[in-house]
Amino acid sequence: MRIKSGVSTRQRKKKYFKLAKGYYSNKRNRWRAVIQQVEKSLTHSYTGRKDKKGDYRTLWITRINAACREHDMSYSKFIAGLKKKGVSLNRKMLSEMAVRDAASFKKLVSLSKAA
Hints:
The protein has a single domain (8-114), classed as c-terminal domain of poly(a) binding protein (Orthogonal Bundle). It is rod-shaped. 77% of the residues lie in helices and 0% in strands. By secondary structure, the chain is mostly helical. The chain has helices spanning 6-19, 31-70, 75-85, 91-100, 102-114.
């Protein structure tokens, strides 16, 4: 007696069709198009998660630079001064300080200028 693969094939296809829900045109209901689009989408979502980290770093640096310019200093000189003084705050925290706590950021700028 032979064993047919109907159940397992249907389960596998259902998984892909569920991921393809909401796609444009035949990319949601034709098997070959679904496979191609879902695999491409998963690849893009993976690389997107990696790219997001760099995007945030760019945002933080932009914010820090804008705050430094208000105090007549460039971003690169600010970071160099902090490194010389041994202040080890990451860019995320520095940007949060620049946005939320201007007074303490001003102290860091003066500390950096002194270095």
